[in-house]
Design a protein that fits this description.
With 349 residues, the chain is of the alpha/beta class. The chain contains 13 helices and 15 strands.
């Protein structure tokens, strides 16, 4: 007889929530109990078309959702009270998850929060490749943001193998997610985040505790991914080939090449769509291999990568579920399961 499935509920069916829901359905060791939300718009109605059960996150929204044509199964409290949920993946808007934490504590369920919450909400911030073991058995864990995840994958891998003495990263952020472009965003400008360091560096340190990093960020007037430009001083001398070898062996990191016509974020976005994945999602972090260079003395490296803001954290959510339930205690085993189910690759073309 096989192990029982992990029963997972998604609370908040937005950009991340709907992607995590679809990823859970593809896991052989998990079962999607349903989704919960407070609205009944096209996103929720599409979830119903997929056969997902829908719950109201708060009781006050039940009648409103039903009047909008969404037949809810019940409330989030009802479902959690029934004991039919092992893990809630909270994908609600920033700071809402912190308010929901008390509900999860009340019913004794485990929860995975997203990067919009503060580290203190869960007490453990998570990137599978870096600190999987730290999350084992915890009641709460927080998957860090897309930008922090990318930093931890790329620089974290280099730090573990070559040792980073000091890292500096400049981030040009997309202004807004695609689905919100009709009512927010910026046009024809770049808006700097004037607080230095930006929150991304300290956030990376909640995962890689000994990483010396400072980040700076700005918002651009686009909605296709983020762009990172990094400079890192190493503790040991390295060649360009050394850096490439480390990144070749790093899970969920891939190379792209400007000489292949991959000129900018738009090119990467188009490649992701050509892969034929749902929504054109890119779970990997693509690094321009021709951007990788090393100083003459071999102690400083430079590189650039794109961060797929809607999708690169999806594998981390799946691994976080396994870690906190301890259904898989070995990081490489969970990463392999997740990557195989999602079709994560090491070469785009």
């Amino acid at each position: 007889m096989g192990k029982p499935l992990i029963n997972v509920l998604i609370n908040g069916y937005g950009v991340i929530g709907k992607r995590v829901a679809d990823a859970i359905v593809r896991q052989p060791d998990m079962r999607l109990v349903g989704i919960s939300d407070v609205v009944a718009d096209w996103r929720i109605k599409m979830a119903l078309m997929k056969g997902y059960k829908v719950y109201a996150s708060v009781v006050d929204k039940v009648d409103e959702m039903k009047k909008s044509g969404v037949e809810v199964e019940g409330t989030l409290d009802d479902l959690l009270r029934s004991g039919g949920v092992d893990v809630v993946v909270d994908c609600t808007p920033a700071k809402v998850g912190a308010k929901n934490k008390g509900v999860y504590e009340k019913y004794g369920v485990k929860a995975v929060f997203q990067g919009g919450e503060r580290h203190e909400v869960a007490g453990t911030s998570f990137v599978a490749q870096r600190n999987y073991e730290e999350a084992l058995g915890k009641q709460f864990v927080r998957v860090v943001s897309c930008n922090t995840t990318a930093i931890c994958r790329v620089l974290g891998g280099i730090h573990e193998r070559l040792g980073i003495k000091k890292a500096r990263v400049c981030i040009i952020r997309r202004a807004v997610d695609v689905w919100e472009s009709g009512h927010t965003g910026i046009i024809n400008t770049v808006v700097p985040e004037l607080h230095v360091p930006s929150h991304h560096g300290p956030d990376a340190q909640t995962v890689i505790h000994d990483l010396n990093i400072v980040t700076m960020a700005a918002k651009g007037s686009h909605n296709l991914y983020h762009l990172h430009m990094a400079m890192a001083e190493l503790r040991t001398k390295a060649s360009k080939d050394d850096v490439i070898k480390v990144l070749e062996e790093e899970p969920r990191v891939i190379f792209i090449n400007g000489s292949d016509g991959v000129e900018g974020l738009n090119s990467v976005f188009e490649i992701a769509r050509d892969l034929g994945r749902p929504r054109g999602d890119l779970y990997e972090v693509p690094i321009w291999i021709d951007s990788i260079s090393v100083s003459n003395d071999g102690y400083e490296i430079y590189l650039m990568w794109a961060t797929p803001n809607e999708s690169n954290v999806i594998p981390e959510n799946i691994d976080a579920i396994r870690a906190i339930t301890e259904t898989e205690t070995i990081r490489s085993a969970s990463i392999e399961k997740t990557d195989r189910s999602l079709g994560v690759i090491k070469k785009l073309y």
